[in-house]
């Protein structure tokens, strides 16, 4: 009898214990559906518990990008990388063979030959997937073609966009260009090769070095604790940034993040980011991720052509102290009609639609 009673008491105690644990878990919200939808980074980025819808939360975070044989080759290079040298690479997204060959020739002759940093080339399926085109690029990397790595990517419209994406918008740009902007602002930081790096030097296929770079710019950034290096500040066309500054202010209000120098970063300021040397920890941080996911979720990349330059320029003004940015004036560089250090080159008159900007520049 006593034994039966003891067993009964034990079962009751166990049941109430399990029920209490379940209720507690529910109340603390650890397994609450809303919070689980956010990535751990996003949860961390919102200490005030905000759960605004972001592209990442809408899609349950970006799916992991697989690492192919080129990516594994890159990982092996990084695993053997000298310990006293910054892990860094020159990074391109390309679609024009006739542009990229001379660009690779110039960086190969004027920088990589001396300082031996790898080059990563992102491209879509097409000519760059073929050995013939790849060999043309490799032969331009005369210093060491084994240091060039190809990574194929695929661009799709995000599924969270609610309205159809028009091919024609005020800010003239093809949809491929808008995919490019989204990739450079966000997708590139999901790539496993990029996650290997401490610094990246992003260039366009129409970027050219004009003369030897006399010092290792990655060590320069590292030694001076710099996060962002650029060759020029420029202006975007106002039609291309419609609503971007407002969306950013809304993000800052919601997150209560204190920006570094956003108050001085007037619309439509950009860094001319066809030449951009930056520290990866900025772009891989939970704060930047929460910002870019928020901006992405607004759809302005496709509806207005919010570019990677204005998005990342704003992010620099929010997340990086101004004294950790660096204006490279001593590098012979060309992009289209722009030549670094050429004071006659001035787009301001063409672009200064914002009267506030005319007084800043
Ligand atoms: N894969 C891919 N790359 C693209 C696409 N559009 C642009 N790119 C690449 O993205 C980089 C920037 O494109 P650009 O056309 O130079 O853009 P931009 O510098 O704003 O414009 P420009 O002043 O005309 O040079 C270049 O390396 C292009 O090859 C695209 O649709 N697909
Ligand atoms: Mg360009």
From TrEMBL:
Cite a single GO MF annotation. Answer: alpha-1,2-mannosyltransferase activity
Record keywords:
Transferase
Q: Which GO terms describe its biological process?
A: cell wall mannoprotein biosynthetic process; protein N-linked glycosylation; protein O-linked glycosylation
**Got a GO cellular component term for this one?**
membrane
Top-rank taxon, per record: Eukaryota
A UniProt-annotated Pfam family: Glyco_transf_15
Record-linked InterPro entries? Glyco_trans_15 (IPR002685), Nucleotide-diphossugar_trans (IPR029044)
What the record says about family reads: Belongs to the glycosyltransferase 15 family.
Name of the protein: Uncharacterized protein
> Whose protein is this, by species?
Ridgeia piscesae
């Amino acid at each position: 009898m006593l034994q039966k009673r003891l067993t009964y008491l034990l079962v009751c105690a166990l049941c109430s214990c399990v029920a209490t644990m379940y209720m507690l878990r529910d109340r603390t919200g650890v397994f609450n559906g809303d919070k689980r939808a956010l990535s751990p980074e996003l949860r961390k980025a919102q200490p005030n518990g905000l759960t605004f819808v972001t592209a990442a939360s809408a899609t349950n975070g970006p799916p992991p990008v697989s690492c192919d044989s080129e990516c594994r080759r890159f990982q092996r290079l990084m695993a053997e990388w000298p310990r006293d040298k910054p892990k860094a690479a020159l990074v391109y997204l390309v679609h024009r063979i006739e542009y990229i060959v001379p660009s690779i020739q110039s960086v190969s002759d004027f920088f990589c030959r001396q300082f031996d940093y790898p080059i990563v080339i992102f491209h879509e399926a097409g000519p760059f997937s073929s050995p013939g085109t790849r060999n043309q690029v490799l032969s331009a990397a005369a210093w060491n073609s084994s240091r060039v790595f190809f990574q194929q990517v695929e661009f799709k419209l995000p599924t969270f966009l609610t309205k159809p994406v028009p091919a024609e918008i005020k800010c003239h740009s093809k949809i491929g260009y808008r995919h490019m902007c989204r990739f450079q602002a966000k997708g590139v930081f999901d790539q496993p090769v990029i996650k290997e790096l401490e610094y990246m030097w992003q260039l366009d296929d129409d970027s050219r070095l004009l003369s030897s770079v006399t010092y290792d710019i990655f060590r320069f950034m590292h030694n001076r604790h710099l996060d962002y290096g650029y060759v020029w500040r420029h202006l975007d066309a106002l039609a291309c940034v419609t609503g971007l500054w407002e969306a950013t202010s809304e993000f800052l209000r919601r997150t209560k993040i204190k920006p570094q120098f956003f108050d001085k970063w007037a619309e439509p300021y950009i860094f001319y980011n066809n030449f951009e040397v930056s520290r990866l920890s900025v772009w891989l941080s939970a704060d930047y991720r929460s910002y870019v996911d928020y901006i992405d979720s607004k759809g302005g990349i496709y509806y207005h052509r919010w570019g990677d330059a204005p998005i990342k320029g704003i992010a620099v003004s929010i997340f990086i102290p101004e004294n950790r940015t660096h204006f490279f004036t001593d590098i012979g560089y060309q992009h289209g009609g722009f030549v670094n250090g050429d004071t006659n080159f001035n787009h301001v008159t063409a672009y200064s639609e914002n009267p506030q900007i005319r007084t800043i520049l």
